[in-house]
Amino acid sequence: MSNIRPIRGEELDIIHFLLEKLGLDPIDFPVNEMVDEYEGGKMGSISLGGNVNGYAGDLIQAEYVDIDDTPVVITLTQDTDGQLLDLDFWKVDFTKLLEYPTPDKLIFGKTPEE
Asked: InterPro entries, from UniProt (predicted)?
């Protein structure tokens, strides 16, 4: 069951931050105004449009530690047409995301447990 809704400012902030971290200009990767929430928004994953049958890989991955101290993996993906596909959140214990991250709370490189 899909849950189409307008994209939130905090989601755009994360997407733009991740693109800039890659040295890419967010203007070159337009984001639809409407997104499709996965799992009813439980973990925060959204479909950004793109060709859902044309997954072409991850652009960048970051981690975040939710306020319950549970690690969350955040991945920005692209499709075979070079368009943004998903902003995927995976909370390692599969529980609900309690606090949406801000760019300053993202971790790159080693996992918090290492």
From this structure: DUF6984
